[in-house]
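I'll show one example:
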Amino acid sequence: MPSSAQAAIQRSEPADGHLAADGPAASADAAVAAAGRAAQAGAVPLRLASADTLDAALVAMAARLRERAASVLAANGEDVRTARADGLADAFVDRLALTDSRIESICGQLCALAHDQGPAGRA
């Protein structure tokens, strides 16, 4: 019996694996389905990884994001322009928009998470 996450992923695409619709909605659906499959595939290795390995991965993600901040900001700028052109609500566009400060905050949270012992400590 599939888990609820597996069932949701399976429902997100037809049995033949191809989406019938064309255009942005189909691309978004395909991207979400692919992300779900990738998350599912990565769940077991993450569950088995040591705390030190997970911490190192979180710190490495923060470092990589800092290194690529300029390209992330450029791509996000395109997303923001598209969202505005599509008439999305200002509040949504504000949540979508990244800045140097927001990227640094994300990096800081990744590093903080890497050093967090959690409510029950590390096992």
